[in-house]
Design goal:
This protein is an all-alpha fold and about 250 residues long. Helices cover about 80% and strands about 0% of the residues. It contains 10 helices and no strands. It has helices at about 5-20, 25-35, 40-60, 70-90, 95-115, 125-145, 150-155, 160-185, 195-215, 220-245. α1 packs antiparallel against α2. The protein is globular and about 50 Å long. The N and C termini lie far apart (about 40 Å).
């Protein structure tokens, strides 16, 4: 078997399992494997494709918890934020941006993990939720980081694990679908990525479903620890990729 095919399948399987378990973080896991063998021009679109497939595979398990009125402000804010982030990309150093986000996640998430009781935000209503979605969209346009802001916000909202996951998974699904549609409509999805999609898609199928099944056994506290732990790891990854470039 071609070693490239094996690495693509391995990254897809690992990323699919973590996404099925947590509702996000496919790119964090898969890219840590793919970065060794794939050109970024191929790895980026492949990640978008697989993240979208992973969201579609596991979204069914949360149909009972999904409330459109709760998720819609986040999604609308994200849709408005993405083009703003793209514009800001021309004015802000993306390396400095990733460094700042990485520092925030590395400091904030472990502090929340160690806290006995998380602060609970009950004010602001749907306008505050839309603002969190807007920040996520802007961060997505700037550096593909749509997930951290809405995920942290719903954690602070104090909702149950199903409600939290339904919101940020619905948000991520919408953002990935928008990104994929943009790539296809603009003709910037590379033709060379399609054969890799045919490898990665089947490879992530069973792991993603297994992760989604395992998620059902988690308590609210265990799910919170998984989410905050993954966000902290993503912060470390951002720091590891940004710091060498600053030097």
């Amino acid at each position: 078997m071609d070693p490239l095919i094996g690495v693509v399948a391995l990254g897809a399987a690992a990323g699919g399992f973590v996404q099925g378990l947590s509702g996000f973080a496919f790119g964090l896991v898969a890219l840590s494997i793919w970065a060794w063998v794939l050109d970024p021009v191929l790895a980026g679109p492949l990640t978008v494709f697989c993240s979208l497939v992973g969201q579609l595979l596991s979204i069914g398990s949360l149909r009972h918890a999904f409330e459109p009125r709760r998720a819609l402000p986040f999604i609308l804010g994200g849709v408005l934020g993405v083009p703003i982030g793209v514009v800001l990309l021309q004015r802000i150093d993306p390396v400095v941006f990733r460094l700042a986000v990485g520092l925030l996640l590395v400091v904030w998430c472990p502090a929340m993990l160690l806290a006995r009781d998380l602060p609970r935000v009950t004010r602001g209503g749907r306008l505050a939720d839309a603002a969190a979605g807007l920040v996520g969209g802007v961060m997505g346009g700037l550096g593909g980081l749509t997930g951290p802001a809405p995920t942290l916000w719903v954690t602070l909202r104090g909702w149950g694990r199903d409600a939290q996951r339904a919101v940020f998974q619905g948000f991520n699904l919408a953002m990935h679908a928008l990104t994929m549609a943009t790539l296809l409509a603009s003709g910037t999805f590379p033709a060379a990525a399609w054969p890799l999609c045919l490898v990665a898609g089947p490879a992530m199928l069973l792991p993603a479903l297994l992760g989604a099944r395992l998620y059902r056994r988690f308590s609210d506290m265990a799910f919170r620890r998984v989410v905050l732990g993954l966000l902290a790891v993503s912060g470390l990854v951002l720091l590891a990729t940004a710091v060498p470039k600053l030097w």
